[in-house]
């Protein structure tokens, strides 16, 4: 079982090449950890050298690198956070990864790294966390972008995601973990999924591979259940809201969810991305980047 070369900051040229983005030099990106409680930290990718304009929150079983192509397309300073229990971050408060508990940690990180960010963008679990953040710390959420998520998500809609997350605890080779990832992500290219696995898994001393994210025993812990309280939180937000919905079968948002979101936020902007499933940032990153940029300057 041989090792696989991995340079966390050495793959951006592949993202750019796959989606036809200019790449004259590597972007300025650094890792920065913020202590959110004594002895516990959240790690983030900080893009650029000036004050961040955006905060990006990934979905369950992902990490901050899921936004790499979007960040390259946006070409603006931003912070992409590894949520608690994911990527390079420590576990959640008292082991909890609920949106409310994660939002409390994210708030500390935003205050340290991006206190004047113009928008918070959250995909899936990150979107639920962003809604909770808007309720708990409204001064940190000046605009809210929800990427293929509403509080109406449930275990049935999320069944393929749950099946993937609750899969094997370890894999004998990189090829095995990549093959499973390809199986559960039919809308993505193999090259993008290979990058994703390199960012989201780690090889142990015995040669086997495990995910960086914490594995969960139930859908409830992953935020893949209906959260009635978050609908109320969403209703209480007074900032501009945009829902970006993937329209392929892999999406977890349906017409009823969209209608319910508009009932709670009548002025919300809703955008349909026809060539994307649940992972809009992976399937259609350039379209998502265009929508985010337009929403922030509108």
Q: How many structural domains can be distinguished in the coordinates?
A: 1
CATH topology: Rossmann fold
Main structural class = alpha/beta
Count of DSSP strands: 10
Per CATH, which architecture?
3-Layer(aba) Sandwich
- Helicity level: 25-40%
Rounded mean pLDDT is: 93
**Net shape:** globular
* H/E series: HEEEHEHEHEHHHEEHEHEHH
Low-confidence stretches: none
> Mind telling me the C-alpha Rg?
18 Å
Q: Quick one: biggest sheet?
A: 8 strands, mixed
Give the neighbour order of strands across the main sheet: 1-2-4-3-5-6-9-10
- How large is the share of residues in beta strands? 15-25%
CATH domain class: Alpha Beta
What does this protein structure show overall?
Helix content is 36%, strand content 17%. The protein has one domain (12-152, 225-297): Alpha/Beta hydrolase fold, catalytic domain (Rossmann fold, 3-Layer(aba) Sandwich). The chain is built from 11 helices and 10 strands. By secondary structure, it is of the alpha/beta class. It is globular and about 55 Å long. α2 packs across α11 (285-297), α3 packs across α4 and α4 (125-136) crosses α8.
């Amino acid at each position: 079982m041989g090792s696989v070369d991995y340079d966390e900051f050495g793959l951006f040229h592949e993202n750019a090449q796959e989606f036809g983005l200019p790449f004259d030099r590597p972007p300025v990106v650094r890792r920065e950890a913020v202590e959110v409680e004594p002895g516990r930290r959240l790690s983030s990718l900080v893009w650029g050298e000036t004050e961040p304009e955006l905060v990006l929150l990934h979905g369950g079983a992902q990490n901050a690198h899921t936004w790499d192509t979007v960040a390259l397309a946006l070409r603006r300073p931003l912070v992409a956070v590894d949520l608690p229990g994911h990527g390079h971050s420590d576990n959640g408060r008292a082991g909890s990864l609920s949106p409310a508990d994660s939002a409390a940690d994210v708030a500390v990180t935003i205050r340290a790294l991006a206190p004047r960010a113009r928008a918070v963008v959250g995909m899936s679990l990150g979107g639920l966390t962003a809604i909770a953040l808007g309720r708990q710390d409204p001064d940190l959420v000046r605009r809210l972008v929800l990427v293929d998520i509403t509080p109406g998500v449930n275990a049935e809609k999320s069944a393929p995601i749950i099946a993937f997350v609750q899969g094997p605890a370890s894999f004998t080779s990189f090829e095995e973990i990549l093959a499973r990832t390809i199986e559960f992500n039919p809308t993505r290219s193999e090259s993008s999924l290979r990058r994703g696995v390199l960012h989201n898994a780690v090889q142990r001393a015995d040669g086997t591979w495990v995910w960086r994210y914490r594995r969960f025993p139930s859908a409830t812990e992953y935020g893949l259940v209906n959260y009635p309280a978050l609908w109320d939180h969403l209703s209480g937000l007074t900032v501009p809201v945009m829902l970006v919905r993937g329209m392929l079968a892999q999406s977890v948002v349906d017409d009823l969810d969209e209608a319910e979101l508009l009932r709670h936020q009548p002025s919300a902007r809703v955008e349909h991305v026809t060539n994307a499933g649940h992972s809009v940032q992976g399937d259609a990153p350039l379209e998502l980047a265009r929508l985010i940029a337009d929403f922030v300057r509108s």
